[in-house]
Design goal:
The chain is mostly beta strands. Helices cover 0% and strands 51% of the residues. It has no helices and 11 strands. Strands 2, 4, 5, 6, 9, 10 and 11 form a 7-stranded mixed beta sheet that branches. β9 and β10 form a beta hairpin. The radius of gyration is 13 Å and the shape is globular.
Length: 118
């Protein structure tokens, strides 16, 4: 089970850190990632982290602003989001049980809303 937290309403230029607490399986066993879905749009990839933590992937739209990381001891995935823009407004989903690279994910959280005002 994946449970996201940390979403909220912020102003453009602010920062947020999302967290995804995992239970049932150790996140050190597989790749994990973040996706987002804006109103009226399809879900899109944001970032991925390999099982070892040594490799990352980012969507071009967030490169240099977002950082994906994890704490294996807490079994928690993070997404640090800096310099937020109104176009970052979306529901953010944690993805787990990633296989391969780029990973294909097999489990999903319920999502957390991020709203960035201009």
């Amino acid at each position: 089970q994946l449970v996201e937290s940390g979403g909220g309403l912020v102003q453009a230029g602010d920062s947020l850190r999302l967290a995804c607490a995992a239970s049932g399986r150790a996140i050190s066993d597989y790749a994990m990632g973040w996706f987002r879905q804006a109103p009226g749009k399809e879900r899109e990839f944001v970032a991925a982290l390999s099982w070892s933590g040594g490799s990352t992937l980012y969507a071009d739209s967030v490169k240099g602003r977002f950082t994906i990381s994890k704490d294996n001891h807490k079994n928690t995935l993070y997404l640090q989001m800096n310099s937020l823009k109104p176009k970052d407004t979306a529901v953010y989903y944690c993805a787990g049980e990633g296989a391969g690279w780029p990973p294909e994910f097999h489990s999903w959280g319920q999502g957390t809303q991020v709203t960035v005002s201009s």
